[in-house]
Design a protein that fits this description.
By secondary structure, the protein is mainly α. Helices cover 59% and strands 0% of the residues.
């Protein structure tokens, strides 16, 4: 990390806050359906999560991609 030219000012706090805010938005998008037990509304609100996970898994399996460790990524 010390070799990088650009250093984000609020790293690592900024990405952590962004991830937490994203989770709050995702899980809070239809909180009334969760508390009142309206399962149909709940399924419609959160249907994008399994669709995303399914498409991500399909891509990983189909194209046989893998995660590259951070220390092996070439930035220059």
């Amino acid at each position: 990390m010390d070799e990088l030219v650009y250093h984000a000012r609020w790293f690592p706090l900024g990405p952590i806050v962004a991830a937490v805010m994203g989770l709050v938005i995702v899980f809070g998008q239809d909180l009334q359906a969760v508390t009142s037990g309206q399962w149909y509304r709940l399924a419609i609100s959160y249907m994008s999560l399994p669709v995303f996970l399914g498409m991500f898994a399909y891509y990983k399996i189909r194209y046989r991609t893998h995660v590259i460790p951070l220390d092996q990524i070439k930035l220059k």
